[in-house]
Structure formats: C-alpha cells, structure tokens
C-alpha cells in the first residue's frame, strides 16, 4: 500500500511541476511576430530580416528577407502545414538575398511540425530536420529610437521624407516622445496598452528652415499625423503606426 501511495505521490508531483512550467511560459505560436535567426542551419544574412506571424484566423505572413509573403496554415497538436500556395510581392534584391528567399519559401512549404522552447520557435520537416529557427520579437516601444521613412500627409497619401532631411522619434521610458521633425526638435507624451498607442499634442522649438523646399510643411504634416495614431506594430527593425480605421500614419526604421 505504501509503495502505491509513493508512486501516486510521484505522479502528482510531476503533474504539478509540468503545470508550473506550462504556466510560466506565455509564448504561443500566435500573438507575436517571430524573427528568424537560422535558416537551413545557417545564420540569416545580417543585412536582412525574415519574419513570420501566425494569426488566429489561420492566415500567416511576414517578410522573407526581400519581399512580403502570405499564406494559410493549419495546426494539429505539434503538426503544422501550409495549406495554400504562398504569395509574395515581386521586388528584386541582390542575388544572395534572392537565394535566401528561395530557401526560406521552400522551407515553409516543407514544414511538418513545430516546437516552442522558451522564446524560440523551430519548424521541422517530416524527417525531423530543423528548417527555420525564430525568436519571439518584442512589441515594447519604450526605450527605442526610430527614423521616419514615410508618413501620412493628411491628403489621403503616404509620402516619403524629403531627401536631405531626417525625422526621428525617441520613445523614452518615462512616457515622453522626443525627436527632430526635420527642422525643429519636438516633444510629446505617449501611452501604450498592448498594441494601442496615444500620442499627446506635440510642442516644438521655433526655428525657421528654408532649405530644402517644403521642409516646414513636412514638419507640420508629420506632427499632425502622430496625433492620429491609434495602433502600432513592431516587426524587427520596422515600426508601423495606423489610425483606428486602419490608415497608415507613419513608417519608421529602427536606429541602432
């Protein structure tokens, strides 16, 4: 009797430990952007970023290092399968990047199982060979710095920053947003809640810039666009803000 009680106690202890381990990890397949670190047992090219986002509705997509791609998938336990042809944009990149893109797209189509360990996701083929290894990306905005690539000009158009100018955004851990708006320094408060963001009215210095043409208008339009931001998304070195209706507010590139 004592022997059976001891075995039962051991089993219960294992269940408790397993439950604690599961509860301590909140990283799941969906709910974050995965950033590839290894592809076919080789490191991802340093000048490229490969990502994957698996959504609850069965769609997934990301960047394959050169182009944006999308497809659908199905999961059953640890089994995963791409269920529709993979579509992508058609940009041309340097040969090594295009070769890597081909390897990645092929790896996705060959995926049969997956494993999540800590903040890492690994995709395997039918033979159990590792195809792609990812790390979970962070959507934490505080303490990051960015350069604006393009912004909404308030005229139903997204425009690039004028050549020869730079717009920056530094999100402080104290809830203050500061930067250069291409002529003046600006400052505003900001708050985030998951993927939601609210940016308060911006103040700025009062310099006047004449060159290049349009720089002062660009400054005003950019600051006005910030006030429309409702959601944000970080994907590796890219930050995107959108309005509540889904219109693009601004695109940013991370400053190391």
Oligomer: single chain
Cα end-to-end separation: 65 Å
What letter string, H or E per element, gives the SSE order? HEEEEEEEHEEEEEEEEEEHEEE
Structural class: alpha+beta
Per the principal axes of the C-alpha atoms, what is the gross shape? elongated
Q: Please, how many domains?
A: 2
At CATH level 2, the architecture of the largest domain is Beta Barrel
Beta-strand residue fraction: 35-45%
| CATH class type of the largest domain | Mainly Beta
Q: How many individual β-strands? A: 20
Helix content bin: 10-25%
Number of continuous helical runs: 3
- Low-pLDDT regions: 1-25
Largest sheet: 10 strands, antiparallel
Mean pLDDT: 90
**CATH fold label of the largest domain:** Lipocalin
Question: Measured on Cα atoms, how large is the radius of gyration?
Answer: 23 Å
List strands and helices in order, with pairings.
Elements (H helix, E strand, L loop, with lengths): L1 H23 L9 E6 L2 E2 L7 E4 L4 E5 L4 E9 L2 E4 L4 E2 L6 H16 L2 E5 L2 E5 L5 E7 L7 E9 L5 E3 L7 E4 L4 E5 L4 E9 L2 E4 L3 E2 L10 H12 L4 E5 L2 E5 L5 E7 L2
Antiparallel strand pairs: 1-2, 1-3, 1-10, 3-4, 4-5, 5-6, 5-7, 8-9, 9-10, 11-12, 11-13, 11-20, 13-14, 14-15, 15-16, 15-17, 18-19, 19-20
Describe, in plain words, how this protein is organized in 3D.
The chain has 256 residues and is α+β, with helices and mostly antiparallel strands. The chain has two domains: 34-136, Lipocalin, CATH 2.40.128; 144-254, Lipocalin, CATH 2.40.128. Helices cover 20% and strands 40% of the residues. The protein contains three helices and 20 strands. The chain has helices at 2-24, 95-110, 215-226, and strands at residues 34-39, 42-43, 51-54, 59-63, 68-76, 79-82, 87-88, 113-117, 120-124, 130-136, 144-152, 158-160, 168-171, 176-180, 185-193, 196-199, 203-204, 231-235, 238-242, 248-254. Strands 1, 2, 3, 4, 5, 6, 7, 8, 9 and 10 form a ten-stranded antiparallel β-sheet that branches. Strands 11, 12, 13, 14, 15, 16, 17, 18, 19 and 20 form a ten-stranded antiparallel β-sheet that branches. A hairpin with a 4-residue loop joins strand 3 (51-54) and strand 4 (59-63). The longest helix is centred in the N-terminal third of the chain and has 23 residues, at 2-24. It is elongated and about 65 Å long. The model is unreliable at 1-25 (pLDDT under 50).
